[in-house]
Amino acid sequence: MIVAESQGHGSHLARRIRDWLHAYLSTGQLPLHKIGRYASSLLDDEDFSLAIKLHLQAVAEKDGHFRANTIVDYVASPEMQATLEEKGVPLQERTISVWTARRWLKSLDYRFGRRKNGMYVDGHERDDIVKYRMAFVKRWIEEYEPRIAKFNNDGVCTGLPGGTCPDGKPYRLIVATHDESTFFGNDRNQTGWIHDSFKAKPEAKGQGQSIMVSDFLTPEWGRLVHGEEEAQLLFQAGKNRDGYFTNKELLPHVSKAIDIFEARVAKEIPGGAVGLFPFDNAPSHQKRAADALSARKMPKGPSQTWGQSPKMRPGTLPGGARQEFYYPDNHPEMPGWFKGMQQILEERGLFHNGMLAQCPGFKCDAEATSCCCRRTLFNQPDFINQKSALQELVESRGHICDFYPKYHCELNFIEMYWGAAKFKYRKSPSTKNIEEMEANVKRCLDEVPQLFILRFSNRAVRFISGYYLGCTGKDLGYLQKEYKSHRMLPYNAVTLMKQSV
């Protein structure tokens, strides 16, 4: 300390002089100064930095996140201490602080912040979803597409379908896709150029009042409208409002849309056309009619009260004959009673002694088809082929009903229409009440040009044809830009893409 003070310095230099003396006494050499020399780091060792990276990846995969302390703890672990000792790292440098860990994370290209939402892929490539998607795009390309009129992105018709249907129905198909979307009162644009003098204003909390829109779009006509009639439905969903838009509200809405579709076809399409009505694969769209075949809650034995309002419709025996599920009204012991699963299976020759109503918890083996009464009925053709109430309605009117694969909003071109309408909506002035908001929503929806809707449709078909050709989502991102003027991707698009890469 005396030496340091004689040089006009304080305790810091005194400590340094002490370190130099200890180094000289232990090695016989004075340490060299490091001024101007490169400051090395443990991360410069590739094996060490790789071990840190792999550990962080493993922790992130397991827990979903990690902290700077994760590195501190890992470096202090016995295995890493042994590694550092083998590399000749001095004892005082074998542990690090949280601040050092943060610097290391920056050096490894990590930045602290909120994770950004990426493309939603949950379930998109699930095995059962992919299987359904391939069946859907195969139907579309091989059955529907030849019967649909083709338009380029300028709205010019490039081909009308020609052919005949064996059932005598019109050959031409017109797609009338459906979807629902919700607009919120406080959903406004939040970005823009702001001057330094701008003073922040308090904004309304929450999303505000909501209006749900249910509508149908066609590539040729845009919104499904005929004269003063339109398929668009505005619904104020929620408690103490219009309630909730369920299958009960959907069916009359679809029936009205079919009326409008048929009236417009009769007026504008010589020779007529059949409607192709695709819907999202939502639970409300898949709901079955009240009397539809379902083994879900069937009792094993006869029941006087089960399934009486309404009674379940008849099934079909293996030979094709009609099978009643209720005893006749003149039955001596059980008039009008539900027969129960055991009797139904006995009439089909499928019941065996000791058969349970269902396996414990209804957790049957994945490959089992006849382990219990319920599972056996679930796998009967008439139960498997039971259609939803929505599909039965559409087909009863002579049209085609189909359902998009789950998690595949890119295949439904009305999703792009919602985006275009909401882009306008967010830029519009705030509204004071629900009446003004409803008028504003309708105006924004009406301002999306029909040509845009046609282009949205062509874009969706490019996705469909891409999946048909076996493309992945990554491939489709490139091919959509490369063939944006095409309605469908060429059959050699994938080959050409791979050659260019």
UniProtKB/TrEMBL annotation:
- Gene Ontology molecular-function annotations: nucleic acid binding
Q: What is this protein called?
A: Uncharacterized protein
Q: Where is this region: Disordered?
A: 294-321
Gene3D superfamilies noted in UniProt: Ribonuclease H-like superfamily/Ribonuclease H
